[in-house]
Design brief:
Two copies of one chain form a homodimer. By secondary structure, chain A is of the alpha/beta class. Helix content of chain A is about 40%, strand content about 20%. The first copy, chain A, has a single domain, classed as Rossmann fold (3-Layer(aba) Sandwich), CATH 3.40.50. The first copy, chain A, contains seven helices and nine strands.
Chain lengths: ~200, ~200
């Protein structure tokens, strides 16, 4: 059986990444969504063990020492990290895995697992991003400005990603993610078994 | 506007490549199918200017001398070649182009246009291939054995392709081609314009 693919998804804060990923998972429940560990406080509606494993700084640092993380990073003063074991197990079972991480973590995954694929979710324009951040009404002006400044810095890292996913409408972004995953399943390196039969003589 | 992609499709003789490509083009008439020049005789039902540009050996060699071909090759005693100009024009218009060529030609295209993508269409097994070749009833036993021997040689070249398209059912193979084309449209190198907006300051 073929290995599942690992797709790393990042995006500007406010680009609609969570909505896209939730739709992807709703339409393809067979995909495994890797739940990160984080030390940040849960937002309204977020559930421990569903959105994140919410842990204390002390617990997170203990897990770092145990070498448990494929990647971890600090972002906006909080730790975020991905546990390796479950992810490898799912892929070995032929299951595609989605990792929702920021650019620092994505760079580490790319380095440690070169066979992974990565996609960066962008809004149609900077103005769109600003509009969405204001529109969701969860952040004060200072936070919004901080997020926009981070977006400008993150944009410099996007060329390292394999794909850019344009979120001009959720269903379009979802279709792009599916195409990327479906194409990944056709990659020659993962289908060499189909040639075995032709090797005789 | 983004460039169209060039996808090179090859496959074992009898793997159902023509059927797959015809279905792809029927469902997405916006794709441009590059019509090759060949010196082989038309098969029953083949139309000049639709399936191939059928030309004489003399005419083909004159076109070689004019440097008209992106690639050309001899296969089974006949010339096959792809004219470059139309193909570049279509891609510049944002149109995806399909090139149906054999392994030697595909290697040349990969070299000259590294941004192209390539897929090799395989049947589920060697037995399937043999069955299909006999089933279509167009070839005598000697020709069938020749095709099977060529398949074994071609199989060694398949690892150089980006993708393997498994033709276990035409609709599955068609879906794989669409996923590959749709993913190609998301490639970062072709979408750098989406980042322009985030470069300020």
């Amino acid at each position: 059986m073929n290995q599942g693919s690992l797709i790393v998804l990042s995006g500007f804060s406010g680009a609609g990444k969570s909505t896209v990923i939730n739709q992807v998972l709703a339409q393809r429940p067979e995909i495994y969504f890797s739940i990160s560990f984080t030390t940040r406080a849960p937002r309204e509606g977020e559930v421990n063990g569903v959105n994140y494993h919410f842990v204390t700084k002390e617990e997170f640092e203990a897990r770092i020492e145990k070498g448990e993380f494929l990647e971890y990073a600090q972002y906006n003063g909080n730790y975020y990290g991905t546990s390796m074991a479950v992810l490898r197990e799912k892929m070995a079972q032929g299951i595609d895995v989605i990792l929702d991480i920021e650019v620092q973590g994505a760079a580490l995954v790319r380095e440690k697992m070169p066979e992974s694929i990565s996609g960066f979710i962008v809004p149609p324009s900077f103005q769109h991003l600003e509009g969405r951040l204001r529109g969701r009404g969860t952040d004060d002006e200072e936070t919004i400005q901080k997020r926009l400044a981070i977006a400008r810095v993150e944009a410099k890292e996007v060329p390292k990603y394999d794909y850019i996913i344009l979120n001009d409408a959720v269903e379009n972004a979802v279709a792009q993610v599916f195409a990327i995953l479906d194409a990944a399943r056709c990659r020659t390196q993962g289908r060499m078994d189909l040639l075995e039969d032709f090797k005789g003589e």
